[in-house]
Design goal:
It is built from 12 helices and no strands. With about 190 residues, it is an all-alpha fold. The chain has one domain: Leucine-rich Repeat Variant, CATH 1.25.10.10. Helix 3 crosses helix 5 and helix 8 runs parallel beside helix 10.
């Protein structure tokens, strides 16, 4: 590398480091914090941000790390995916949709990531969830149905009502039927208010 290039490279690095970049300043969560979050996830299948608040700040970072760690117990990872849905933001959305679309990933973890994504994105997730209703894996189809219920809205309801007619797997149909009834109950109670 010539001297001129070294000077420019040095100036570039110095300039980049002078800006407050969140990922450069992020602290690695302590082992104690990770253990606390895992303990909460093991105790509570559907841990909310309020449940996880006892572990302190930056719980979303711990949840993201747990979800990305394929050596971690599958059930803990699934619960982390669901819980991450309680922390809205672009990072949560990106991680959840990435895990959900990873074909190498465990189907149960992918299904939980679909639900977490729907919880973060709301009705805006419906278009992204549509293809999962036709996935060859019934675990993912059931996860997509639950995710549509979490996303809510008339588009999710009509998509699910259409999918149940064509669903061949009894277990998946039962999940779809349950979600549709839950959605109907929520929508019915809203219209009476």
């Amino acid at each position: 590398m010539t001297t001129g290039r070294r000077v420019w490279a040095g100036l570039f690095v110095a300039t980049i480091l002078s800006f407050p970049v969140p990922f450069l300043a992020a602290k690695v969560p302590s082992a104690t914090k990770v253990e606390d979050v895992v303990r909460i996830l093991k105790a509570k299948a559907r841990a909310t941000p309020e449940d996880l608040a006892v572990a302190g700040s930056e719980v979303d970072v711990v949840l993201t790390d747990l979800l990305a760690n394929r050596t971690m117990d599958r059930e803990v990872r699934s619960r982390a995916a669901w819980a991450l849905g309680g922390y809205p933001g672009p990072r949560s959305r990106a991680v959840l949709i990435s895990v959900a679309s990873d074909r190498v990933e465990e189907p149960s973890v992918r299904a939980s990531a679909l639900i977490g994504y729907a919880r973060v994105a709301g009705p805006g997730a419906v278009a992204d969830l549509k293809s999962y209703l036709k996935d060859p894996n019934p675990v993912l189809r059931a996860g997509a149905a639950r995710a549509l219920g979490a996303a809510g809205g008339p588009d999710a309801r009509s998509l699910l009502a259409e999918a149940i007619v064509h669903e061949e797997d009894l277990e998946v149909r039962l999940v779809m039927d349950k979600v549709l009834k839950e959605m109907e109950g929520r929508d019915g109670s809203r219209s009476r208010e």
